[in-house]
Amino acid sequence: MCLTAYDAPTASLIDEHCDLILVGDSVGMVVHGLSSTVGVTLEMMILHGQAVMRGAQHALVVVDLPFGSYEDSPETAFKNASRVMIETGCQAIKIESGTYAAETIRYLVERGIPVMSHVGLRPQSMNVLGGFRARGRSKKVADEIIENAIAAAEAGSFAVVVEGVSEVLAKKVTKAVPIPTIGIGASNECDGQILVTPDMLGLFDWTPKFVKKYGDLKSVIETSAKQYAQDVKNRSFPSEEFTYRFTKK
Ligand code: KIV
Question: Residue 11: which of 48, 43, 64, 37 has the closest Cα?
């Protein structure tokens, strides 16, 4: 069971229910209001990784390497991944794994960095993949996704996130690799599941088809803010109960 977190209080609330907490680069979209994860920086990931590590006592914490921080060479990937691990104290990193990734994964794992991979819909590549649509409709792309997962596993990844694929393809990927598959929008055929926490808490009106909303955080925030504004305007807050009165000594 896995969820994402980006701050200490949320991490501490979900910690006992999670085997793994991902500090996802989805932080760019769900916290910072970016339109994709492409603009997320290493500094953002480190800051949010540090916060999550202060809240998580039990779950394995994995931090995403952002776009541009690992693709050009295994050496660059090691420099940035080791910085993330040293500065946050997290236990592993995640990279989105296209065909180029196997060499980098092997290089990182051999040098002591546990790697979780990410195949299928790879949001950092949305500009070449054509947006956030589910992937693997054609046999060619479906085979590519299976190959990416096999290559990531053979290179030493300890788990692979499978995002935005059909049930049939999720089943094939899960069968093809000896490591756990963690699905997001990838049916019940993966070994585990992950969701973006603000999505499943109901913070947004729109969420992808695969998100089940377990809460209604949006209306909790809206109604609380509205009630607070009314109370302040009609001076019913702060009332006696919330007021300091010091007796003279
Ligand atoms: O960034 C993220 O939150 C992720 C999940 C969608 C798995 O990569």
Answer: 48
Query: Which secondary-structure segment (H or E) carries 21?
Result: strand 20-23
CATH of the domain at 155: 3.20.20.60
Residue 94 pLDDT more than 80? yes
Closest CA to 127 of 35, 249, 41: 35
**How distant, in Å, are the alpha carbons of 75, 230, 231 from that of 159?**
22, 50, 50
- From 32, 117, 194, mutation site for ligand 1 pocket: most ligand atoms within 8 A of C-beta: 194
How many angstroms does the Cα of residue 236 sit away from the middle of ligand 1? 43
Is residue 249 scored above 80 in pLDDT?
no
Position 243 in a domain: no
| Ligand 1 within 6 A of CB of 173 | no
Query: Is the residue at 135 inside a domain?
Result: yes
Assessment of whether the complete model's pTM goes beyond 0.85: yes
Atom of ligand 1 nearest to the CA of 2: 7
In this structure, is residue 76 part of a structural domain?
A: yes
Number of Cα atoms under 13 Å in the Cβ half of residue 5: 29
pLDDT tens-digit readout, 98-149: 778 999 999 999 999 999 999 999 999 888 887 788 888 899 999 999 999 9
Specify the higher pLDDT residue, 170 or 126.
170
How many separate domains does the chain show? 1
Peptide bond between residue 74 and the one before it cis (omega within 30 degrees of 0): no
* Ramachandran assignment for 160, one of left (phi > 0), alpha (psi -120 to 50 degrees), beta (any other): beta
Q: What is the average pLDDT across 3-19?
A: 98
56 in any annotated domain: yes
Range of the structural domain that residue 83 is part of: 2-216
